[in-house]
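Exam review. A common question shows you a sequence with its structure tokens and asks you to describe the fold in words. Practice with the pair below. Do the first one on your own.
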Amino acid sequence: MIHHLKGKLVEKNPTNVVVECGGVGYFVNISLNTFSKISDSESIQIYTHLQVKEDSHTLFGFAEKSEREIFRLLLSVSGIGSSTARTMLSSLSPTQIRDAIASGDVPTIQGIKGIGAKTAQRVILDLKDKILKIYNIDEVSLNSNNTNKDEALSALEVLGFARKQAERVIDKVLTQDSSLSVEDIIKQTLKNL
């Protein structure tokens, strides 16, 4: 198993990078989330997951270990392959996926291209307990946080802001401080909109 690659960034595209290590160029598939976090500097370190199949060896790369961990959890779900897991990590941040699974938020996961209602439910059913245990998430605080997020989102919609844009900014605000009240979430979000 290849844990990570550290070397020269030869090529960078939204779906892949080429990293040269010791004279060998490795073609690494990445998500849009990783693409946005990789700098254009010459030196790069990327965490990897090697998928070995009968007819191919495919390398997936991640800017952070946490994203790789979510990717591996998603692969453990029946019906979720590497391309679907990569699409999920391109559509939502690892934190958003983790929180959606932990809170049983089917609509968020179903909102990802290629994910239907049954698959979204299966992802939540298979991974909810693992995610609560691995990340030591308290379900009570998660539910109250979700209620605050929903209330703040509704208030911003009433004020005329687009739901998707407001939700993105609220998620950023909550990743910095998840204990904010509804009023504070709205205030912080308005500063960043």
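Now try the second one, then compare your answer with the model answer below.
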Amino acid sequence: MEKLLNIVKNIKPVDIIIITGVIIALAVGFLTYKNVRQTASKQIEATSKISFQVYIRGVTLTGGEIPLKSNEKTFISIRNVPYSNLDILDVKAERKKTVLPILNSKKVMVVEDVSQSYMYDILVTLTDTAKITKDGAVVGGNKIKMGLPITLEGQNYKFNGTVSDLKVMPQTDDDTFHNSINTNNDV
């Protein structure tokens, strides 16, 4: 009994912290091994093509030409972190509009705002390959969701916008074949 008391007296707080850390690490490892706890790689359900729209509000363009064009590439930054060049599927630009009431009526009409003749709202559709998880599509380590701030940058422009729509494109037979090859190579 005295030997046990001497051992307990000689244990320092640092020793207790180290022993506790090792026990916790072993417990987490055991739970991961028994599939109670999922690792990040097991949370990915699929890899798929996605398309998402970026809404850019209030762009001033005096040159008369929209610098973003379909079938070209644009470099994007997600939350001010550079990501990659993505393909532009579609670009829609409209001049600012205003609502005018029609006299002697309860109706209104929408017309171009002549006081802001160089102001445009632009909707850009982009495409990329994303990892699909339970929480949504992940691109460059970021979940792509509506409201996410994105910067589009090209040779002569840099626009800030937000994601306004997201669609996961259906997989073709070729995509399924490539995913099964990638899955087999990971094993």
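Model answer, second protein: The chain has two domains: 2-33, 43-171. The helical segments are 2-10, 13-33, 40-43, 173-186. Full marks require stating both points clearly.
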